[in-house]
Amino acid sequence: MKLLNAFVVAIAASAMLSTLVQAGEETREERLLSSKEIARLIDAGMHDRITENNVELVSAMLNPKIGDSLNKTLNLDLIAEELFEGAKPSIDGNCYDSRFDLKKCEMTAGEAAGKGAYAKLAFASDKSKTSLRYAKRSDAVDLPKPVKLSDAEAYKGALSLAVETFGVSEVEIPRAPAKSKNPYPVKTVNLATSKGKGVSSDIPVQKLVTIQRGLYVEKLGWIPGPGRLSVSFNSDGLNAAALRSWADMSEYGHDIDPRKAKSRAELVEELTTLFQKEGVAKLDSARSLLAVSLPTGAESPIPVLRVFASAQPSELSEKEQANVVSSAGVVFEIPLVASDDAMSSSDDN
Amino acid sequence: MTLKGKVSCTLTALSLALCATQSFAMEARVFAISDFVPTGSGGCGGNDISHWDNMVDEWYDQMGSEGHIKDGQHTNGGMTIQRFCDPDWTGGCADASWIDEADTAMIATHGSDSGDHWAGTMRSRWNGHCALDAGGTADDMWVGDYDLEFIHLSSCFSADDDNLSGIREAMYDVVDTPNNGRRAHQWDGFHGIMWIGGSFDDDYEDFADDAHSISMGEAWVSNMYDDTVDCGWADPFGWFGSCQEQCPVAYSIGATESDALSRLNNERYNNVYSDPTGKSWYAYRYIPNCDSKGESAFNP
Lengths: 349, 300
Known about the structure:
The complex is a heterodimer of chains A (about 350) and B (about 300).
Chain A: H1 2-22, H2 35-44, H3 55-61, H4 70-73, H5 76-83, E1 90-94, E2 103-110, E3 118-125, E4 129-137, H6 151-166, E5 186-194, E6 201-217, E7 221-234, E8 237-247, H7 264-278, E9 285-293, E10 302-310, H8 318-322, E11 329-335, E12 346-347
Antiparallel strand pairs in A: 1-2, 2-3, 3-4, 4-8, 5-6, 6-7, 7-8, 9-10, 10-11, 11-12
Chain B: H1 16-19, E1 27-32, H2 52-65, E2 69-75, E3 104-108, E4 111-113, E5 118-126, E6 129-134, E7 150-154, H3 164-167, H4 177-180, E8 186-191, E9 195-196, H5 201-210, H6 216-224, E10 226-229, E11 244-254, H7 257-266, E12 281-286
Parallel strand pairs in B: 1-2, 1-3, 3-7, 7-8
Antiparallel strand pairs in B: 4-5, 5-6, 8-11, 10-11, 11-12
Helix pairs in contact in B: 2-5, 5-6
């Protein structure tokens, strides 16, 4: 009997090994969580400030410091004058006529195709949000020159563009406190070359500034707001800028009742259901934070809980990477306040 | 394959400037998996992410708005490696009817770092394979030898710092390329984990738009970079280092160093060079020390 058992075990082991060897991906670990485990992870990633009674929290979020609306402060002629450096661009679309709900146009200088210099400014604005995008290229002859700006200089340039040119309110640009690890939201972009062994050349060619809109809330501090700005500088100076979905805050909170704020248990349950409905079963962490966001199709922003669902730990060694079936990270947002028409939770706007 | 009007030329030091720049309607295709098949049901597994195909469709739709041909939007269904692998690797592979039939293509699926290359998760097994292994020592994927110029990967680990040297191995065919001279031009991907959500939709649309005004490489890196993912409660702006980053990488190949660099710095959807004449060199646009989830900081 012992011999038979040993034989059976050997056969089973051999079959398993054969299966493992058959395709490398099958040696990777897959661990599916139960709904209880998912709920526990969501709860663990939720700050203690979220309690069973979030009325006060939501009330505070509904009264942030808000600057003047871009609908009042944005001057497209001024922007065009500065970005096209006095040249008169061609205009296509409706830039100015506010009889229409949507103003949308493009201003261009140069030929889009080919190798020559070119600049484009795209503008779109309706009642709920404004977007601006600018891109400029020089004649495509030379290989890139190194960018010489410091992070501080790039940040200062981006702020000036945002406030003085685009009309963004300074009140909505969050400033890093003293002793921050990352005081400037600036990254250097490099171009590098190689033949395969080591790096042959590595040139810093751009400074990329990304400014997340912020809203200052009493007792909470700065929280992310609906809108994002990015500005790039290369060796020739400003070469790209994008003001993305900068939502109008004029009507924010007018039809939101903080007394309908969801409790912590409700939020955990709603997120757990959402994750399961989505098919997210492999999860390592689900960190969350407060934000104000403009859902797709909505006219006005709302206070939300933003959740980052990740199936991977923060750092994986190369060996660990080869043994894990990876899943992309997902960002979800759910309203902090229950609505009368039972708005369903979904991914963010 | 439709007539494209490409200029073929022999690359010499003087003719580099003359070889380039055709502007024509590109055939764009998108391949997305948002609904994965559980291993228990005989599939390849992976978290479902319902918004993924919507997100990459923003690129596809914008390409149409720019005047290109929307040549195929393939979501879920029979997504196996058969659509991406080359028959010179295994008979039955049909990349020339799928990904390599396009001029520019985006793939959206879960990705892994499989040693020295990227591996994309498929829905179902084909010929014993759940993963599309591309680059490095892998042989599944050889694109560019038929038609493809630009490949964009909305996929984790698709351009890891330790796999850069091997990406070019997926951008030509060891059998066909020596005869027809065709190779892919650029590969755009991510170091480590990438993220999905409605707030990233604009990134994909703007990438397609910007890549007609500024170089494709710059458009990819500038639009896909994000510094405030997975932030801690008390640090939503990343001031104290709690956030992870999303780290895009744009990559090109060339016969010489200046060729690879010029392509990365200048090529756009409306400024398409002729196919590279070699892959001895590669160039990449990246953010030094970009620190994504699931990986260490970018440092090749």
